[in-house]
Each structure stands twice: as structure tokens, then as C-alpha cells.
Amino acid sequence: MANEEDDPIIQEIDVFLARSLLEKLYLFQYPIRPASMTYDDVTHLSAKIKPKQQKVELEMAIDTLNPNYCRSKGEQIALNVDGTCTDETSTYSSKLMDKQTFCSSQAASNVSRYAAAVYKKGELHLTPLHGILQLRPSFTYLDKADAKHREREAANEGGDSSQDEAEDDVKQITVRFSRPETEQARQRRVQSYEFLQKRQAEEHWVHLHYYGLKDSRSEHERQYLFSQGHGLAENTELIKSPSEYLMMLMPPSVEEENDKPMAPSNVLSMAQLRTLPLADQIKILMKNVKVMPFANLLSLLGSGTDATAVLRCVQQVALLVQGNWVVKSDVLYPKDTSSPHSGVPAEVLCRGRDFVMWKFTQDRWVVRKEVAAVTKLCPEDVKDFLEHMSVARINKGWEFMLPYDEDFVKKHPDIVQRQQMLWMGIQAKLEKVYNLLKEHLTPKKQEAQSARPLLVSGEQRVNMAKAKVKQNYGQLEKELQKQKAEMKSNDASARTDVPNIRIKEEPVSVEEPMDTSAHEGLNNGLVNGLHSAQGSVEPVNGHLPGGCIDRVAQELKAFVSATFKKQFVLTLSELKRLFNLHLASLPPGHTLFSGISDKMLQDMVLDTGCKQILVPFPPQTAASPDELKVYALWEAGDTYDQHRQVLLEIFSKNYRVRRNVIQNQLSQECGEDLNKQEVDRVLKVSFCSLW
User: Fold this and answer.
1) pLDDT band at 259 (very low <50, low <70, confident <90, very high)
2) Which of 285, 424, 600, 667 is deepest in the core (most CB within 10 A)?
3) What value does the mean pLDDT of the chain take?
4) How far apart are CA 666 and CA 320, in angstroms?
5) Sequence-distant contacts of 300-307: CB under 8 A, at least 24 apart
6) Contact indicator for 137, 99 with CB cutoff of 8 Å
């Protein structure tokens, strides 16, 4: 009673329930707008609705005269979406982004507790809401702009990749006879996400007409928010006791499953994922990602997860390919399923995908036509296999999408060995199914088991050559001792005493000599890479004898001339790599071991008729200085001299040029029309080593 006295009733208001707009009234929640903009300022161009889904799309005009509107940005967006030409299908006919589309989503699945209220003359009229829709901007125009961009890129490339070449006249056709659908299969199909999406897409849009806030039709419709009769017969629901009425207004809170936002069946949040057992978490992650390094998998599972348990579980749903884990085929294609493209059963799809995975254990590159020829599957299925684990490269093939994970291979050799045994069993099955020849598989298999990356850099090749020299050093030393003994017996009087170790003084020069030693740390019996018996060609105090200088220049000129006749364009870095390989193949004591500096090598390149091409590389490039120095043979004496000179002039102005620009420039300068194949041949002949 004391509380009631402290809170006295000031006014009693009659409440009425309006039924005229029952199951027709929706509440639209618009995005937040500036306070200066009212709904009268917004022009609705069009509106449409799907009643069953309660989905609405509104198209609103944008005030392009507003000082806050960026006109240049609006023109750029319209150009990206529609291109230069405008027609009836254009999104922005005014060549300016002057409108925006808003799409709705349900704010709450249960709106029975919400109503729209109108207060007038001491009466409160309530109308139950049929739905609450939140309107958000739709960015479908960005998808259209991306599609236009991909079309322009494809047109500029001047042709498709080798993987998308035109198919032969004779095409394989797969005939599938449909089997009677069981009740269980029908229920799975009806509950699938694809089926629900298809049903939603089949519902037609109902176009609406928008009336403004002050329109006479709007004024007329607003009258339906008031109860049409104040008699008790129409408001029997409000004749309740105070406790019942309070229960209706504030029912007890009960958490309902349908209050959770709707999501596709294949979408699972990380919070929900971590409530599942570890094996299920790994299976869901691998099924969605398909290819993943082990370190990334551990990071997704959260801190504190036992790596040993993860290794045990991941081997049940994935296989090791180039140090990375790739989901197994039977996880993606369960039993009693079939291909959506050709209807091929899951067993055949698993064999074909296993063949693709096995190919990637042998090499980083796979050709799609080769896979299709072996597996006899349709191109769409083969493309799906490749997209799971690789990336298409123009005129090369499909490359495995992740680099070789050497860290995992070194840390877990037992896992690697076990996976190799599994792949041996899979290979044996593939040989029986596809009739593969063992002699074609054995070399690739050994290469895959070497646990080394397949891409070898120039520095690694030089190190391999040095290691080979070290292995042959013992044999070479024996031959040297034999030659020295013969020389002593034949010409004892001409024998000169040569100290075991002589110190070579480097010439005082700003040019640093190249590292051209055939091997390191093996100076016993050698003087700076030369045998002591052949000290006549060794530099003394940094200078060569007169006759030796000529011999060194002749040998260096012969190497440079032969190299540029094979590869017309080379960077300084590539030329030095080839020179190191050339030195590794020479016998000990050769004149070129006397020391060749970078300046001497570059001067010799210019003396042999080559020119330096000043390619304008971007300043933010990560290339080394030696990779930025480009040299080219200007005249080779073949039929492509003129074409090559035109190309070099083009690349001296821009480091990246489109194919059609090259074709037009060649046609103008050479006076002949070159087709795509001829241009490709000129590029291949001229820049085979650089591009």
C-alpha cells in the first residue's frame, strides 16, 4: 500500500485493438541517416516484395547535388559497373551512381509481442505487427563490376590458357539413368540448403507502388491504424483480469531455438565449432578449407590443443601432399552420392580425385587434359578436383596452391613415412584401375620421396655443383700427383720450387670480384683455385701476365657470345649464374679461374655487340640490383632481328605491356600483319629466358 501511495495514478488511457491491418503491417528499420535528412528527402524509385519469405527490396535515389556527395567517385563506380556504353540493361543510365538498393532481413522471427501504437485524443490504438524487417544496403553492383573487370582482363589476354583450349570435335557424353528416389533420399534433398535456395528463388517478386508521407493515399491508409469501432464486441481480448492482462503484456522469458538467426546448413561459427569433439572439428575444417598447413590447423583449433591428438585425428580425414594436409576424397564425396555435373557415382569421383592428389605428390604442376585423358571424367568434374587444391596459371597448367612445408616434414619424419606408404598403396590401386605404366611412375615417385622442393634456385644449383666438385676432389688430386710425377721425370732441370701455399693479393679496385671459385676450403695443393703445377697462369700481386690476359679475354668472350646466341635477353643475375655453372664444368687450372669481376663481365657483354636495356621497373620492386640490369643481343643475324629490336624499344619505355599493344607496334614497324601465333613465336624466341 505504501508503494501505491508513492506512485499515484495520474491518468487512465483507454486501449483499443485495431484489426484492419492485421497480418499486413510491417515495420521497416532503415539505416541511420543524418538528422537533417527526413523521409521526405528520400525518393523511392521502386519497391518489390516476396510475401512468403517476407523479403523486400527498395531502390532509393541518392541526392547527387548534396555537397557531401563525391561526384568523381560516383562516376567511377558507374563506369566500373556499366562500362562506357549505356543501354536498357545499364544499372546507372545517367553514368553516375544516383541510386542505391536496400535488401531486407528479418530482425526477429517471433513478432507476436510487438505492435504499432497510435495515441489520439486520450486513446491508445494498437495494431499487431506481422513482421519487422531491417533494411541494409545491397552491393550487388560490385559483383557486376567484378564480372566486367574479369571480361576485360580475358579480352586483353588475347586468348585463354592452355587449360581452357577449345575441345576436340569428338566429345565424351555421359548417359545417366535415374533410379527411383527413396523416401530417405527425398527427405535429405528437401532439407538440403540447395533445395531451400531453389525454392526461395522460384518465388516471384511482387512489385509495389510507393506513396509518400503526405500523399492522400498514405493519409487514407493511416486511418486503418485506429480501431473502427469502440464496442466491446470487437475488443473482447482486452476484457481480462489485471493479472491476465499483465501476463499478456509481459509473458515469461523462454529461450526459443527459432530466435537464433537463420544460417545455411553448411555454415558453422567458431564458437559452435569448438563445442564439438576434436575429431569433428578437424573434419569440418578440412572439408571446408580442403588444403591446409598443419600450423594453420593448430591455430584454428585454439590454444592448448594437443598437437599429438590433432595429428592422430587429421590422418583420418586428410592425406599429406607436399607437406600440407589435403582432405580425403571420401569425405567430400560420401557413399551413395553422385556428381552434380555428370551423375558419376562417388566411387568413380574418389578415384579421379585421388589420381589428381597423387600427381601433386610427384610434381607441383598438373595439366588438366592429361588428368581428363586418364580418368575419363567430364571437364567440369576434373576442374572441381583441381580447384580444390591448385591454382590455374596461364600457359603453364595448374600449380599446387601452397608452398612445400619443409618444417613439418623435418619435425615429423614418422608421419611422412607413414603417408608415403599410404600413397604407395593408392598408387598400386590407380595402376590397376587406369592401366598406368610403372616405368613412367617410378622416377616421379623417387623424386617425390626425396622430400625436397621441386623448384631449385640458381644459388642451390651452384651449391650442388660445388658439392659435386668436393666429391671428385680426391680423384682429381690423385691425377694431379700422377701428372706432377711425370713432369718431374721428363723435365727435372726445368722444375721450379713452388711453395705449398701462396697468398694472392687482391687488386686495389672498387669493383668486387665475383665468387667464381669451384669449391671452398680446399686449398691444400691449390693456389686460389689453381694447382701449383700450373702457376704460370696465376696472377702475381693481383696482375696477370700479358699472354694470360689475352687468353682470359678470349675465353670470356667466347662464353658471352655463345650464351647470348642461345638466350638473346639476360639479366646480370642470370648471366652470373650461368657463368658460375660454366666454371663448375671446367677442369682445374683453367684460365677463367684467375678471377673475373662484375665490371669485366659487363664490359665484355657490351664488347660482343649487346646493349643494356633500361627497363623502367617500378620503384617498389623487390628485385635485386643485378636483376634490374638487363642486357640484350641487338643483332643476331637471324630473321627476328628487326622484331626483337622493336620489342626492346617497347620494353625500354614500360616494364609491363599488353599483348595487343605489342602486336600493333610490330605490325606498324615491320610493315606486316602478325597474327596471335606469330606474335607468340616472336616473344618466345626473343625472351625465352626472361619472360
Assistant:
1) very low
2) 285
3) 75
4) 49
5) 300/270, 301/274, 302/274, 305/278
6) no
Three state DSSP letters for 454-521: CCCCHHHHHHHHHHHHHHCHHHHHHHHHHHHHHHHHHCCCCCCCCCCCCCCCCCCCCCCECCCCCCCC
Contacts with 214 (C-beta within 8 Å, 6 or more apart), sequence order: 40
- Span of 357-361, 388-392, 483-487 with lowest mean pLDDT: 483-487
Residue pLDDT, tens place only, 74-95 = 888 888 888 777 677 777 878 8
pLDDT at residue 444 greater than cutoff 50: no
Q: Tell me the average pLDDT across 482-494.
A: 63
State if pTM tops 0.85: no
Residue type, 649: E
CA 622/CA 336 separation, integer angstroms: 52
CA-to-CA distance for 603 and 610, rounded, in angstroms? 10
Residue with cell 597423387: 358
- DSSP letters spanning 620-687: T----HHHH-EEEES--SSTTHHHHHHHHHHHTT-S---HHHHHHHHHHHHTS---HHHHHHHHHHHS
Cβ(687)–Cβ(613) under 8 Å?
no
Compare 618 and 384 and report the one with higher pLDDT. 384
Q: Which residue has the cell 525518393?
A: 43
Residue with cell 689475352: 550
DSSP 224: G
C-alpha cell at 408: 613439418
pLDDT-based confidence at residue 166 (cuts at 50, 70, 90): very low
Given a contact cutoff of 8 angstroms between Cβ atoms, the answer to whether 172 and 675 are in contact is no
Strands 123-128 and 14-17: parallel
> Closest by alpha carbon to 682, among 662, 658, 664?
662
Helix axis angle, 140-157 to 71-82, nearest 10°: 60
Place of cell 606469330: 678
Rounded Cα gap, residues 323 and 342, in angstroms = 32
Q: Where exactly are the structural domains of the chain?
A: 14-62+98-151+191-207, 277-434, 547-687
Banded pLDDT at 677 (limits 50, 70, 90): confident
The kind and range of the H/E element at 106 are: strand 99-106
For 290-305, the three-class secondary structure string (H helix, E strand, C coil) is CEECHHHHHHHHCCCC
